[in-house]
Amino acid sequence: MLPVRSTQLISSTSFHLLFKRIMWCFFYEPERLPKSYVKWITSLADMDQRIILALQAIRERRWKYSKPSPACHDILGDLASEMRLNRSLGDPTSLPAYGGKLGNAVWDSLGYDRRRGVGGIPCEIVHCNASGNSCTGNAVLRGIRGFGQALLIYAPVHVLPPLISNPRGLLTDPVPTVVALFRSAAFLSTFISSIWFTVCSVRTLFIARLFPFIPHDFWDGPQGCILAGCLVCGASIGIERGSRRGEIALYVMPRAIRACLPAKWIKSGSWTVRNLERLTFVWSLASLLTMAIHKPEALRGIARWTLGYIMQGKKTRSKKPNQTALEEEHQE
User: Fold this and answer.
1) Read out DSSP for 44-90?
2) Greater pLDDT, 220 or 133
3) pTM to 2 decimals?
4) Whole-angstrom Cα distance, residue 186 to residue 191?
5) Distance of CA 79 to CAs 74, 97, 108, 126, 289, Å?
6) H/E element holding 100?
7) CB under 8 Å to 279, separation ≥6 — which residues?
8) Taking a C-beta distance cutoff of 8 angstroms, is the pair 197, 228 a contact?
9) Are 46 and 142 in contact (CB under 8 A)?
10) What is the pLDDT of residues 257-312, one digit of tens each?
């Protein structure tokens, strides 16, 4: 059996890589993800759909600063107008492709002085009026908002199991449950704020300023700020308790695997797709039930207690979910 630290490292690395793929597909190929999952990420990201359309156009090379296709002229123009900005700030034919002196000359001609030294779409538009032109303020505000949303999401996950199995213990000592809840909320809020701040750090605050001769078609493209954001945000899993990291990694794994498979093949509904889904479900359930009987210590959290109760009945009732969590915390 692997040491606890090794399993935690594997769980963290797995989540990091898996969610990098999921977030990349969210921006560029959302059809590869379940619609409900895309909707959930969209609500947490609080991003205008027109920003995503612009990112997809940049990847497909339909949006090129100074030389876009005609269909891209108005993708962000309406958004700029809604924010009471000059409509030309959302028009790629008007925006500077480079930073430095060349970019400053274009900004001067547009009468816009909040993006000197860099080119590309103004961050004020990318933020969708969340915090004006402040990239740091945008990340902080979105992190705070994400924390509140995460509390609502994770409250049932952390509170219901001990409330159902051992309500007296929860009322007597609620601190471990509250700490776990706030820890999970901090993980998700850090995930949200880190991807926003990384995107702005690459395209506005630091990297693009160091290399003004590189066009913003690269910085705003799939190998620029979005790739950096997708890579960095997964590191927030380190905030979670070690045992929870594995659970979260297993939760996102099916979606990441689905995002790697050909979309047409999945949507075809052929017998190979159906049978593969059934075999995967049978194998997964059989593995969990086998572990619940022969090696229950390999399971974690509520899954360990629930499957143990199903397979062994009242023998496992003496070990409640909160007791299992305390044991796992002690092992870490």
Assistant:
1) HHT--HHHHHHHHHHHTTS--TTS--GGGTTTTHHHHHHTTS-GGGG
2) 220
3) 0.88
4) 8
5) 9, 20, 21, 10, 52
6) helix 100-110
7) none
8) no
9) yes
10) 989 988 788 878 888 988 998 999 999 889 888 888 888 877 776 677 778 777 77
Distance between CA atoms of 96 and 307, rounded to whole angstroms?
A: 59
Helix, strand, coil % over all residues of the chain, rounded to 5 = 75, 0, 25
* CB within 8 Å of 209: residues ≥ 6 apart: 99, 117, 118
pLDDT bin (cut points 50, 70, 90) of residue 325 is low
For residues 220 and 72, the answer to whether their CB atoms sit within 8 Å is no
Say if residues 295 and 1 touch (Cβ distance below 8 Å). no
Instruction: Report CA torsion sign: 254, 255, 257, 261.
Output: positive
22: exposed, middle or buried (Cβ count in 10 Å: 0-12, 13-18, 19+): buried
- Is the distance from CB of 154 to CB of 189 less than 8 angstroms? no
Mean pLDDT for the chain overall: 88
Residues 6+ apart with CB under 8 A from 227: 24
End-to-end CA distance of the chain: 15
Residue 55 burial (CB count, 10 A): 22
DSSP output for 152-199: HHHHHHHHHHHHHH-HHHHHH--HHHHHHHHHHHHHHHHHHHHHHHHH
What are the structure tokens assigned to 172, written together? 């007597």
How far, rounded to the nearest angstrom, does the alpha carbon of residue 229 sit from its chain's CA centroid?
9
Q: Which tokens hold the place of 67?
A: 């030389």
- Helices 175-200 and 225-233, packing angle to 10 deg: 160
163 vs 26: CA distance, rounded Å: 35
